[in-house]
Specification:
146 residues, Aminopeptidase, 5-stranded mixed β-sheet
Length: 146
């Protein structure tokens, strides 16, 4: 098996990342994942999203950014055939290292309620499930899939 390398995500990786997301159970693709929105996210948070490659193929992704106060992880995923090799941990570590370098001391993420594997992963890494807050969302556009 080829060695895994971690590198910064670029907008030119967009199609491969969307394909990766489509192949990963527990991930929903929304309008907010469109090319232009992803480009804006990467431009706003340069050098903070990472990809894992094995043999020239993208097998994992972790996107991160911050609002100046709190950090956020999104779309942390690894193809099932490449799991249990520490790839997701390496991706998360790269994101957290960069967030910390930029002065961010607390990081949040969302996991779908029915994504039991994802919830187990984050708990194994020491992340704490929040029960003291309720999340609200408001769609500003015309699409219910925002």
């Amino acid at each position: 098996m080829s060695e895994c390398s971690i590198r910064v995500m670029c907008i030119s990786d967009y199609d491969a990342v969307i394909s990766l997301m489509q192949q990963t159970e527990g991930v929903r693709i929304r309008d907010a994942d469109a090319h232009d929105a992803t480009r804006r996210y990467l431009e706003r948070n340069p050098g903070m999203s990472f990809l894992a490659e094995v043999g020239g193929s993208i097998v994992g992704c972790a996107m991160s950014g911050h609002d100046g106060r709190r950090g956020y992880l999104q779309h942390v995923l690894v193809l099932p055939a490449y799991r249990k090799r520490g790839i997701a941990r390496r991706l998360v570590s790269a994101c957290l290292k960069e967030l910390k370098r930029q002065g961010i001391e607390k990081v949040h993420l969302d996991v779908l309620e029915d994504n039991a594997a994802g919830q187990r992963f984050w708990q194994q890494l020491g992340w704490q499930r929040r029960t003291d807050i309720v999340k609200y969302s408001l769609v500003l556009g015309d699409s219910a899939n925002a």
